[in-house]
Amino acid sequence: MTRPTILPPQEHPAPPPPAVQETVAALPGGPAWLEELESTVLGLRDRWGLRLGRPFQGGSCSWVAPVATASGRRAVLKVAYPHREGRGEARALRFWGGDGAVRLYESAEDGFAMLMEACEPGGRMSEAEGSPEELLAAGAHTLSGLWKHDPGGSLGMEFLADVTVEWAAATRGYMEYHRPGFDPYLVEAGAALLETLPATSERAAVVHGDANPGNILEAGGGQWLAIDPKPMVGDPAYDLWPLVMQVEPPLDHSDPHRVLRHRFGLASGILGEPEERLVAWAFARAVESSLDLVNRGAREEAESEMAEAEVLADLAGV
Question: Which domain of life is it from (predicted)?
Fold first, then answer.
């Protein structure tokens, strides 16, 4: 992997990628955040003694770039548009302390600017070679690192149970308002699980919240580290769904039920979480995601997500 370019000290930061600019510009306060971004980055550069690199491409609402510290250590600087899902990112990285996620070195008072470990070689799991089972196993081991510490409270992050109750209400509301033609029994079953699953968990962890293969990076020596969490405190079984479904699309197989049974069984053995809870959370999250996509006007993606939810419903015995 080619090392990113570190700019000469006098250079000003490059703007974020066009897709980030477009997304943030449409958000409340987004234009002001974009206008102030250069001065924000320069202030952090001076505060933490950094040399800036050119920002990475990709992402949706943050400026992220490789940097070098005064001692020559390679790191990554992230400045995020303030939003609810990212509010606990710095707290979570600090809590995990490098177990399963990149290590946090510094953070701003509001938590939306962070100096963190540069994960090298840094290739994304979504682009890695290997069978789906090998990648799933590696991702599950990464999640187990995140979950191994008992948070003992909220740590200033949201509780999963509070968030999923909101999602259940939104799911029902979107179903009633948009009338997308989905099976109302399955939608209600998914919404009900969003309300009831958190209360039946036997343990709590700081969950990643968005553990898809694009958010897991190769760290060398067979190790992987998570980035870009949307953390909450609650049932760890919540976390697995995007990893299981995105290491390879299960509906591309002639028998997706068999493929998914094998994947959930494999992950359950690594994580020590009951297979039925992993499946139930996956079904509930697929239903919620599908209705959220309907509300955002992404009908084709919503139908694809609901097709996955139907298979997961069969596995969950819904």
Answer: Bacteria
Residue 218 parent element (H or E): strand 216-220
Length of the chain: 318
Domain span holding position 209:
125-316
This prediction's pTM: 0.93
Domain C-terminal end among 117, 143, 166: 117
Residue 7 to residue 121: CA distance in whole angstroms: 20
Is pLDDT above 50 for 2? Answer: no
Say whether both 308 and 259 belong to one domain: yes
Distance CA 166, CA 96 (A): 27
| Same domain, residue pair 33 and 145 | no
Contact by Cβ (8 Å): 270, 137: yes
Confidence of residue 255 (pLDDT cuts 50, 70, 90): very high
> Contact 293/176 with Cβ under 8 angstroms?
no
